[in-house]
């Protein structure tokens, strides 16, 4: 990530405390918090504006029916984020660097190009989310909102120069804002908990549109850049002296992944429940973030609508910061060079500004950006499964047979859904 000599005193103190925890000198209830950070940052990808768009569509059109997709996507995400963190901790290399080392050059360049397209799709979602919220809150044009989101993102990225800890705490604060907003919403909207519970465990797809939204949910949940990023966040974060310390570090990492992604999963479930409870009966045509806001105001009051916008602003800004960090890491890993952060922002921002300037419907653009992400997803998933099952790379930390089987099943599910979506896009009616 960055050399430790640049780190602030906060980062140095964290590193010292982590070293004491690993060699057994520091114990206590608060010890796991020292290791919190990488999964919290990665979890932002699971609560970005793309999730808002797909979850609002799922809840308003299909009620609680598609909640099982959110649960399944989150479980797959947990496994792959844990594997990504493990790769970084065990090899001290990130996933993109491993790909460059292990794969032929044409494959590496192909993966890099696909990953950059995915980064642009990610940026589209994040900029639009922040801009929609700002334009609704202050009545400003969408393009102006996007410009403001870009400036705020750049300022927050500068925090990273002061070491990893300040940035982790800042992102953690934004995650807390999003989670609290949805906790509040759950007390405002009327929820049928029995139906919601059934929706989480009963797989069903009512029609072809439900399939498209389901793939969008998975694209918005299990994200390519988050899988790449997590390995980079763990690769040099903590110095370990021996395999015993590495094993302990992996255990703390897995605990953090489970907690951080459980919070992200609950936020996504809450989004669908909110949309379902507020819009499904009588307002099932609500498919857009703007309409959701305007409909929430008379239905549940300005408080509910305001909380919704606050969560969207926190989501847009934080996920934009994380997206840029991932983009830098992907480029550095695949092709071995970095570009200034402002150039990176500019390159991935331009398609988002073009889409808005052309007058494309903002929420539709959000949903389709998530479909693009879902199509870019199999490559890093397959690479991660391949590397973490190889003993010559992972040594004693190689995946167990059970982990390999479950990760292959997760990858096959994503691939199958993508193939179905592609066939549907080209006019083959799967749901007939």
From TrEMBL:
Keyword hit for NAD: no
Record keywords, A-Z: Cell membrane, Ion transport, Membrane, Symport, Transmembrane, Transmembrane helix, Transport
Keyword Transport: yes
Location relative to the cell: Cell membrane; Membrane
A Pfam family reported for this protein in Swiss-Prot or TrEMBL: Nramp
Transmembrane segments: 29-46, 66-85, 106-125, 131-157, 169-191, 211-233, 254-279, 299-322, 342-360, 366-388, 400-423
UniProt membrane topology term: Multi-pass membrane protein
Function of the molecule: H(+)-stimulated, divalent metal cation uptake system.
Family: Belongs to the NRAMP family.
Name of this protein: Divalent metal cation transporter MntH
Primary gene name: mntH
